[in-house]
Design a protein that fits this description.
Layout (H helix, E strand, L loop, with lengths): L1 H15 L3 H14 L4 H13 L5 H10 L4 H13 L3 H13 L8 H30 L5 H4 L5 H7 L1 H5 L10 H12 L16 H11 L11 H16 L7 H15 L1 H24 L4 H21 L5 H4 L5 H22 L9 H15 L9 H28 L5 H22 L5 H16 L4 H22 L8 H20 L17
Helix pairs in contact: 1-2, 2-3, 3-4, 3-5, 4-5, 5-6, 5-7, 6-7, 9-11, 11-12, 11-20, 12-15, 13-15, 14-15, 14-16, 15-16, 15-18, 16-18, 18-19, 18-20, 19-20, 20-21, 21-22, 22-23, 23-24
């Protein structure tokens, strides 16, 4: 025990000097000597949190060993809060407060009591925001679901026509939607009644579907999330997965599982763990709009995928799990980029930023470099779109947003303002024309984003008019599938506004009131 205490003291000193890696090692060595010490597990959890690692297991061990340990409960509360488990975090914060004496408090206890109550209020605030976001993301009514006008219904009705189209250039967006829909249908119960049976691979199929095309996802019943959570608990139990561990721990546990029970046992556990993290990231981003939590879940999934690909680099994907393929990782990186972009957007105007724009640009560059590689020969349309074209377009669009933001900053010079806005327009145009099918709503939307940047830079009509013309030409094809899409709010009003403005510009050009060197923007009086 004496050695364990010495190691703990050394770990505390290293933690105080912010040497979290060495502190973690000291606490780990101490735990090997004294595995019943709650403080050691709590301290190691603090190191993991400081390194943005998963600390839930150690935090749970701390309160299991000592249910009256206030710091143990506060550590567990932080873990749950980071994972967007706000109900569990509130419970843990309250437990932490209850462990503090109510009378004759020392100065240290008064400080802890204040910190724990502040943590509780912060979590309750995030929980309230998440509930409000969930209410906004209402389930689709049966009238809408049965209308036959949703994108997947339109695509299904058009399948024969679409299948007869020659495979030239960028194919139709319908192929990606249909593939995503097939994954949903393979759950036997579809999206509407998902998780009502434990006989199907719901987590596996749903994760494949949203990575193919996230727009296929819709909530059909108010109990959907509750049913899905039950499915996660069930599959975690039967496969003995590691949902509450960190990537580094999962790798070590999986290596041991492979040695003891073989790949047939380890493979589904790894798959469920990674896919569950991906889906939690998706839900945090799409439903509760907790972008920080989404980034955390995707970070964990990517770290585990990267580590697994290195550790088992000589093991075929069919053996180690198909989640370790290039395409799966690329799709997760694309989802992570979206979440990071949303987190950056939420931080605009704040002085202290957790998600720097420079890192966003780096992530976009890395994804584009990977996604723009030539796809394998004979790859089908859907896979080409989902795992190459859409990620590449996403990366360029994020780069476009980056330049848009830089060009709008108050300290940007007029010359740089024009440069960044035109660079933004270039990125959006490349995303649309090079990577997105013309019948995809994103094609029109990226062109619209480019046009807005040109207007902001007061670019002449020689730049902006061709973009307006392209929006007008592709709008009908896009609407044949996406007329009732729920993905882009206010899309049709915005695009119709562009079409109407182009009509006025063409009339003014014909009458000689404008020429192609004229700089006009939406809102200018042309009549």
């Amino acid at each position: 025990m004496g050695d364990a205490i010495s190691l703990k003291n050394a770990g505390n000193a290293l933690y105080a000097s912010q040497d979290y890696i060495q502190a973690y090692e000291k606490f780990t060595s101490a735990i090997e000597l004294d595995s019943k010490n709650a403080i050691l597990f709590s301290n190691r959890a603090a190191c993991e949190l400081a390194m943005n690692r998963q600390a839930t297991f150690d935090a749970q061990m701390a309160v299991k060993l000592d249910p009256k340990y206030a710091k143990g409960w506060s550590g567990l509360a932080k873990c749950r809060d980071d994972a967007a488990n706000y109900i569990g975090a509130v419970v843990a914060w309250r437990k932490a407060v209850e462990c503090i004496p109510t009378t004759n408090l020392s100065r240290a206890e008064m400080t802890l009591n204040r910190q724990f109550k502040q943590g509780l209020r912060s979590t309750e605030s995030r929980w309230k925001a998440a509930r409000m976001a969930t209410q906004v993301h209402k389930s689709l009514s049966q009238e809408v679901l049965n209308s036959g006008d949703l994108p997947w219904d339109r695509v299904t009705a058009m399948m024969q026509e679409l299948c007869n189209r020659p495979e030239t250039g960028i194919s139709s967006a319908s192929s990606s939607i249909m593939s995503a829909l097939q994954f949903i249908l393979c759950t036997d119960s579809g999206m509407d009644n998902v998780c009502l049976t434990y006989k199907t691979q719901v987590i596996e199929k749903l994760s494949d579907a949203v990575l193919f095309d996230k727009r296929i996802f819709h909530v059909a019943e108010s109990s959907w999330m509750e049913n899905y959570d039950s499915q996660c608990v069930f599959r975690n139990r039967i496969f003995k997965a590691w949902l509450d561990r960190g990537p580094e721990q999962v790798i070590e546990l999986a290596k041991l599982r492979v040695l003891q029970k073989g790949w047939n046992n380890a493979r589904p556990a790894l798959s469920v763990t990674i896919r569950a993290w991906v889906m939690w990231g998706f839900f945090a981003c799409r439903i509760t709009h907790d972008y920080a939590a989404a980034v955390t879940w995707y970070d964990k999934a990517i770290e585990l995928l990267d580590r697994g690909r290195r550790v088992w680099k000589d093991i075929p994907n069919e053996v180690r799990s198909m989640v370790f393929t290039d395409t799966f990782l690329r799709a997760v990186r694309s989802a992570h980029l979206e979440a990071y972009h949303d987190a950056c957007t939420a931080e605009l105007g704040k002085f202290d930023k957790k998600y720097p724009l420079r890192r966003l640009l780096e992530l976009a560059d890395e994804l584009y470099l990977d996604a723009s590689k030539p796809p394998p020969p004979n790859i089908n349309r859907a896979w080409n779109l989902a795992f190459f074209r859409y990620p590449a377009a996403n990366a360029l669009a994020v780069k476009g947003w980056y330049h848009k933001h830089i060009g709008e900053e108050a300290d940007c010079t007029p010359e740089l303002r024009v440069f960044h806005n035109m660079k933004s327009a270039e990125m959006y145009i490349r995303a649309a024309r090079e990577w997105i099918p013309q019948d995809d709503e994103l094609h029109c939307w990226y062109l619209n984003a480019a046009l807005r940047r040109m207007w902001y830079a007061r670019a002449p009509l020689s730049f902006s008019l061709p973009v307006m013309a392209e929006i007008r030409k592709v709008y009908p094809d896009m609407n044949s599938i996406w007329e009732f899409s729920t993905a882009l709010k206010g899309r049709d009003e915005t695009l119709r506004e562009v079409v109407g403005f182009e009509r006025k510009v063409l009339r003014a050009l014909q009458e000689g009131r404008l020429n192609m060197g004229s700089s006009v923007i939406l809102g200018d009086k042309l009549d």
